């Protein structure tokens, strides 16, 4: 594959980045919950954070056999190795001795072709161990989807997360249908948390979007990254298409909120309006933390 289609990083680097979160340490928060259900919800939040936006037309480098990637963040140390080239299999092991957390992944993609759609299922083992609580969470991942017409990439399908010791499970679907019957957006995620002994009696319902946790996906540099890149490259046609995609997605979300009689609420400000004084905003946080970028 020509280098023009590569992003400047290896697939092993991408795997390593999935384990930790840039702006919020969701992995260590899995340890904080006092009850099994609170810890399970924290594990789900971290799991959602491992889904990252994808860009059509660029892919990471295909790792060579024996290639390794070693990265640390705080007390978390991550080591990834390409243990097979054909088929492509990567192994990941991460430990945090302070928090007593272990992550073990061994995964490989299996592609299926159907018309203009290429669907890659990630097979293998994904485990998260909270040693302080003697809990092991086993999970798989949604499928990678590549559409040739109309062009696009994303995540889709159904996957599961379960805790072996507590019997808690979650079944999650990306890009499906919402509970009110409306078609889900490509980044929508719906599902339920239940106990393995009573699957038909959910403890919690999940209905939202996997890219809405935290601020990072709403950051201007992220929202308009593809458009900006195309403009800098003077690829005006592609820039126009990317801009149109963003605008159409906003219109679709607005239409969905209207159908549910929902009002969008800002995350970081309280907003009010009056004819006498116009618009007024006040921050919800007393202080602003350091920016991640």
Describe what this molecule looks like in 3D:
There is one protein chain. The chain has 293 residues and is α+β, with helices and mostly antiparallel strands. It folds into two domains: 161 residues, Porin (Beta Barrel); 50 residues, Alpha-Beta Plaits, CATH 3.30.70. Strands 3, 4, 5, 6, 7, 8, 9, 10, 11, 12 and 13 form an eleven-stranded antiparallel β-sheet that branches. Strands 1-2 form a two-stranded parallel ribbon. Strands 14-15 form a two-stranded antiparallel sheet. Strand 9 and strand 10 form a beta hairpin. Helix 5 packs antiparallel against helix 6. The radius of gyration is 21 Å and the shape is globular.
Number of helices: 6
Which CATH class of the largest domain is shown?
Mainly Beta
Based on CA atoms alone, the radius of gyration comes out at 21 Å
> Are there runs of 5+ residues with pLDDT below 50, and where?
176-183, 213-218
Number of strands: 15
Structural class: alpha+beta
Global geometry? globular
Q: How many domains would you count in the coordinates?
A: 2
Mean of pLDDT? 80
């Amino acid at each position: 594959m020509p280098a023009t289609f590569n992003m400047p990083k290896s697939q092993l680097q991408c795997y390593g980045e999935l384990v930790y979160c840039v702006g919020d340490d969701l992995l260590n928060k899995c340890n904080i919950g006092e009850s099994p259900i609170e810890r399970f919800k924290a594990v789900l939040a971290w799991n959602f954070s491992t889904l990252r936006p994808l860009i059509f037309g660029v892919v990471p480098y295909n790792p060579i056999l024996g290639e390794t990637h070693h990265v640390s963040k705080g007390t978390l140390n991550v080591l990834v190795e390409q243990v097979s080239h054909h088929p492509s299999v990567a192994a990941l092991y991460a430990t945090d001795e302070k928090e007593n957390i272990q992550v073990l992944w061994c995964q490989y993609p299996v592609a299926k072709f159907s018309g203009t759609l290429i669907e890659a299922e990630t097979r293998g083992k994904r485990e998260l161990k909270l040693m302080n609580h003697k809990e092991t969470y086993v999970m798989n991942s949604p499928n990678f989807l590549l559409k040739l017409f109309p062009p696009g990439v994303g995540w889709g399908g159904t996957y599961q997360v379960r805790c072996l010791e507590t019997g808690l499970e979650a079944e999650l679907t990306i890009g499906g249908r919402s509970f009110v019957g409306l078609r889900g957006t490509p980044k929508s995620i719906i599902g339920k948390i239940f106990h393995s002994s009573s699957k038909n009696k959910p403890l919690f319902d999940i209905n939202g979007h996997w890219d809405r946790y935290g601020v990072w996906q709403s950051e201007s540099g992220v929202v308009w990254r593809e458009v900006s890149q195309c403009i800098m490259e003077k690829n005006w046609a592609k820039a126009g298409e990317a801009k149109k995609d963003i605008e159409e997605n906003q219109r679709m979300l607005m239409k969905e909120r209207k159908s549910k009689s929902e009002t969008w609420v800002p995350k970081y400000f309280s907003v009010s309006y009056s004819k006498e004084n116009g618009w007024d905003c006040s921050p919800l946080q007393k202080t602003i933390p350091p920016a991640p970028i």
